[in-house]
Every structure is written in structure tokens, then in C-alpha cells.
Amino acid sequence: MNTLESVDWSQLPQPSDDGGAAHLPGKRMPQVSLASTSGRFVDPSSLEGVIVVYAYPMTGRPGRSLPDGWDMIPGARGCTPQSCAFRDHFAELQSRGVAHLFGLSTQPAAEQRETADRLHLPFPLLSDAALELTRALELPTFEVNGAILLKRLSLIIRDGLVIKAFYPVFPPDRAVFDVMAWFDGEEAD
After folding, report:
1. How far apart are CA 46 and CA 40, in angstroms?
2. How many Å apart are CA 132 and CA 129, to the nearest integer?
3. pTM of the model
4. CA–CA gap between residue 68 and residue 66 (Å, rounded)
5. Topology of 18-183 in CATH?
């Protein structure tokens, strides 16, 4: 576990399904405009077609310490590998009909910009720093050092309606494969 991208998942506690996303399939996306790393505001409810949103707690930065005990919080570690996996398979998602892909966290957009640039992400990260979307959808969260952070999940949204929620997500770098398998009909609902 020496780098942000290389993680031994067997050494980390796995999150359990606490039911925190069970209510999401069938839910309409609320009208919420979120700052994005593209420099524009994005309202996912207004977008047509299929959208994939993967939520994550917070991305680390080289040379900057993560909160004490971060690795022992079930599901906390792995935001960089998760984003890199979505980056590496972005074209495959598009070939499956995904019109928009977004990463989502409660970090400020300025912090996310560093991540998007460093990781060369071809899609925007969305900031829900004001917790508007988090509260409206009742997304699962946890608190660290006074900050409300999202638990890791992936949503598939079609024309403003959540049609699938993957939760919990572990290991994080496998999330994109679960999403692609769903599009390929390899997962029964």
C-alpha cells in the first residue's frame, strides 16, 4: 500500500451492505447543479441518455497525508485506483451506450481538478461539497474529521431515472467491470 494506485485489497477491511443504496433504483434524479472539473456546472437530471456516476469518499494527493486510520475504514481506500479504472475503460463504456460518465465526491471542485489533471481523466468529476445531491438522494455517507464523505457506489441513470445501484463497491478498481458486466447482461437483477 505504498502508492495511491497500488493497493493490496486483501489487507483492507471490506465494506458490508448496510442497505444504504437499496432505495435508489427507480428514484428520479433531483435537479441539482454541481460544479465540475470541466469548469461548468452539470445537472445530471437534465442529461439525456445513459449516465454512469461513480461516487467515492475522497482522492488522496501525492505528498498529502490521508486522515489517520483511513485504511481501516471499510471501503475508504481506493479512490485513485477506482478513477483510473474508469479512465482506462471509458471507451468501452461509451461503446456500451454510456453517454456521460462522472466521478462524484463531496470534495471541492478545486481539489478534484488536481485529481482530474494528474490522472488524465477524460470525463469530469462532480463536486457535491454542499451535499445537495447527497441529501436529495439520501446517498450513503460517513464522517471523518468533521467532513461528510460519500460511501463508494456506482449508479446507472437513464433519462433522469436511477435504474441500477452497485453498493457496496469493493475492491474499488473492479467497479467499472461490474458496470460493464451489467450492460453486457451478465448480472441478473
Report:
1. 14
2. 8
3. 0.92
4. 6
5. Glutaredoxin (3.40.30)
